[in-house]
Amino acid sequence: MRKPSETLKFWQKPLFTITLGGRTFSPSIVPTLVFLLLLPVLLRLGVWQLDRAEEKRQLIRDLEKQSQAEALPLVTALKQEKPDMMPVTSEGQLISNVTLVTDNQNKNGRLGYEVYGLWQAKNFNKPIIISRGWLPRKDFYQKVPEIPEFEGNTVEGSLYYSKGHNPVVANNAVWQQFEDVWLIGQFDFQTLAEKVKQMGYDSAPFIIRLKADDRSEFVRQWELIASPPEKHIAYAIQWFAMALALVLLFIILNLKRVKNNESTSS
User: Residue 73 gets which letter from DSSP?
Assistant: First the structure.
């Protein structure tokens, strides 16, 4: 049976030795195994993020093409295979007692609010959450924005389907009521829908983001996706940088200067 000291020496024994001038590169078994296990993982994560970036680019191209199409009646648009971001028109009326506002919404470096209403469309059985757009925060002390009156019995905008539930927002959602306006700190579609349901309305599984209008006080500049390709590129660079750091660390830790007595004995 091998003694513990012999076992330790076995794991510390160099797998190979390469002489490089006055230094030797002689990695032992344990750090080599760790290196060989970690490096492919880091590289694969970097490649995966690059793939995700390309997927996002393609998604943006598809959504841009979709968003530039001619507006269809709501019921017609919903029959399409992929109605997300499709321009629509809808006749109906605004449900006046439902106004939701999300705080801390940034536009061009300025904080403000996004204002939501509830729209009852003709020939559609469920009310629809509509985003009326963004309003700037006037000052630090302003709690809710001054919301312009809604006019008309027709809305035109684009369909927006949720890209995923945000459990952090949902689990920490704290609604504040200011007269007939309900305010929450951040946006999460499911959280909005649940609040609307508490108010007695079972809303549709999408939002209509109203079309930009120069005559309106609302700013309506909609992002096609929340996480752009550049974010995945940044993540990929981080993973590749970690892989490079691992390679350099592996080399530095296993590169040793040859001692004089060792070179003489050899």
Answer: E
